Amino acid sequence: MTEHPVLPAEESVLTTVDEENLYKKSGKIKKKHYKRELERLQEELVRLQMWVKEQGLRVVVLFDGRDAAGKGGTIHRITRRTSSRVVKVVALGKPTEREQSQWYFQRYVEHLPAAGEMVLFDRSWYNRATVERVMDFCTDEEYQEFLRSAPEFERMLMRSGIILVKYWFSVSDEEQERRFQKRSNDPKRRWKLSPVDLEAQKRWVEYSRAKDAMFTYTDTSNSPWHVINADIKKHARLNCISHLLSQIEYEDIMPGPTELPDRQQDPNYERPAINGQSWVPALYGSNPSVADVERS
Fewer beta carbons within 10 Å, N or C terminal of the chain? Predict the structure, then answer.
């Protein structure tokens, strides 16, 4: 059995469930075990969040990879139980005309964390080495300058005390195409499928070459790329969160359950009539009546 890098042996499905019962015949983790492990990891993320805030740490996590590799879904699971005031998500759109005239890293610097914050970049400054390079959104000179500058920029961040973790979500061409087709067929997901996504699929090999070159220049000993096998989304989420928790030393400062104070009572207080209030129509359930308010 594989021991979890963070969770105690008696709490992780890796050590409490036999492998034959942990996975389906397809090789995917069973839903009940996935949910149990994810909930336990999310509890641990809350502990990490509290430590980051208490100690005034500054953490930056980059999520890069091909389109439909599952970056956004993993970020969503990380932030589901954490505070948006501490764990913040940055997903920048197309640069404005003004931003295009700035130093390339400038618009990312604006979103770097203050003390007690963790910033998750849903795509990062590495857009220049991948999407912009493949789609000809930057010049050869701008691209080469980025490859020279990125490692020094990251060394500068780490020298300032920022903890930097970089993830690359790797997905096969067959799985990416399957996810694109699913997005196309589902009106709830169709907004995720952009013309750039479709063009990137047509330029799959160019994208691979761009990623290989990016790794050659920026996969350094002090700021390595951590590659996530993202063909199975649930596995990718669990693996990424587990690894992230192992990258930052933290202590458990979670307070115990809080005893609630007695609710204030004032027999002289009278609630105003609710008849004149604009209640949202109760399509599901019902709104309170005058009698309900009087009883409360």
Answer: C
Q: Helices H, strands E: what count in the chain?
A: 13, 5
CATH of the domain at 93: 3.40.50.300
The model's confidence at residue 259, banded by pLDDT at 50, 70 and 90, is very high
pTM value? 0.92
Q: How far apart are CA 293 and CA 275, in angstroms?
A: 11
Dist CA 238 CA 35 (whole Å): 10
Return the number of other C-beta atoms located less than 10 Å from residue 235's C-beta.
18
pLDDT tens profile 35-65: 999 999 999 999 999 999 999 999 999 999 9
Total domains, the chain: 1
Q: Is residue 96 part of a domain?
A: yes
Write out the residue range of the structural domain in which residue 155 sits.
13-247
pLDDT > 70? residue 292: no
Q: Kindly state the average pLDDT of the residues 256-260.
A: 93
For 130-181, the pLDDT digits (tens) are 999 999 999 999 999 999 999 999 999 999 999 999 999 999 999 998 998 9
Query: Would residue 281 count as lying in a domain?
Result: no
What CA–CA distances, in Å, run from 136 to 73, 146, 173, 215?
A: 28, 14, 21, 19
